[in-house]
Amino acid sequence: xxxxxxxxxxxxxxxxxxxxxxxxxxxxxxxxxxxxxxxxxxxxxxxxxxxxxxxxxxxxxxxxxxxxxxxxxxxxxxxxxxxxxxxxxxxxxxxxxxxxxxxxxxxxxxxxxxxxxxxxxxxxxxxxxxxxxxxxxxxxxxxxxxxxxxxxxxxxxxxxxxxxxxxxxxxxxxxxxxxxxxxxxxxxxxxxxxxxxxxxxxxxxxxxxxxxxxxxxxxxxxxxxxxxxxxxxxxxxxxxxxxxxxxxxxxxxxxxxxxxxxxxxxxxxxxxxxxxxxxxxxxxxxxxxxxxxxxxxxxxxxxxxxxxxxxxxxxxxxxxxxxxxxxxxxxxxxxxxxxxxxxxxxxxxxxxxxxxxxxxxxxxxxxxxxxxxxxxxxxxxxxxxxxxxxxxxxxxxxxxxxxxxxxxxxxxxxxxxxxxxxxxxxxxxxxxxxxxxxxxxxxxxxxxxxxxxxxxxxxxxxxxxxxxxxxxxxxxxxxxxxxxxxxxxxxxxxxxxxxxxxxxxxxxxxxxxxxxxxxxxxxxx
Length: 525
Description:
The longest helix has 13 residues, at 133-145. The chain has two domains: 56-280, Periplasmic binding protein-like II (D-Maltodextrin-Binding Protein, domain 2); 289-495, Roll (Dipeptide-binding Protein, domain 3), CATH 3.10.105.10. The model is unreliable at 1-53 (pLDDT under 50). A hairpin with a 5-residue loop joins strand 5 and strand 6 (114-119). By secondary structure, the protein is α+β, with helices and mostly antiparallel strands. 23% of the residues lie in helices and 20% in strands. The strands form seven sheets. It has a seven-stranded mixed beta sheet. It has a four-stranded antiparallel beta sheet with strand order 5-6-8-7, covered by helices on one side. The protein has a three-stranded antiparallel beta sheet with strand order 19-15-20, covered by helices on one side. The chain has 16 helices and 22 strands. Keywords: Signal. This is Peptide ABC transporter permease.
């Protein structure tokens, strides 16, 4: 279910395998967060070009991209917006499986350490350059080598790419059947190599082979797009224009939807009831969001297993759901939602809420009530942090919330002792697991620690083809091995919550993705 993470109060998260939504008012630096700035009106100027001559999607986004170079933006939540412009080798269907996009098919060699993607013939980028294996090779190499790439850590299984016309032969460092899942919209959105030769220009003038092309871009504020007739599946794209704007304050989004300034937007759970009362369609797009409390077991007091377990038993997950998602989210003690292939029922509720047990463990560790004092470091004011503070106070742990706007630097350097993190997961379950529990995982505050047996369990998943009948069992075993980690306490999953005008048809329920294929707009915009 990751990306790249984006720390966020209450629901969002940072870079890597996914990422949950970023704070509406807080920007994190570099490729770790989406820049949120006041939006221009969706009407006026070139923004309305074409309105009246065809259907126009008016989308208010809380994840308006700070960067339009997909290598820099990484696989954070804004990959959904970048997917308007960029296509990938694969994309994700409603079951979470990889299906063809720019690649019409693919196959592995017998050993499983090489995969060949066969590209669709006759495709071009919006600048007229051919979509071929050379473009795939350039995209992979740029993602691995560009200095400000947010994707290099995702591509460690790829050794090299050979370009043979329309066949991209990907040589792997290990047997890895996860590659079709990996190289989808999150991790390898492919730009024109010609345009990408000047990454700083591509960043504000995106050139892809996706369903739309950019006609106007105001950095951080607004982008106007039109349907791309050269897109391989253009006949099933029924929206003619897109006006994407950075969402204003959450309280004004619903009124904008009601009055027609927008016809599509992500909304806060606190706005859902008002949106429904306004006659809007409110829905949850499936996803892999998961929030957690991050512990560094290389630092006291979490180098004591009893303290770690005391924190685990002190957490009441229902309170997060009730107060932060207004009941629209779900409790979770794993990085995957219930019902997903990687979710391990055998590990469910291993550490139930039990304040009495928490106090007992702290006493065994030598701490009386009030003895243990912790600093919880977060990037911005965060009601999630306040809930953690309150719950730990009930078992005798005093928590002081410290705000560090440069939180990302010490977090990814593993210098913090106690923090919060949220992600949107990844399409590759293995990526989600290694990001959370692997020795180099960006979500693992206790790096280079990893649970015993985890590395072997993940290797077994990589060696197992996705269509192997034994794959679900092998994958759940890897999840179980990862959950032995003492570095993470999962709390809740915030919903991917959206509201739309009834004139906009339903979107395909593809986990974590926004897919515009087949979507229609009826009546007046």
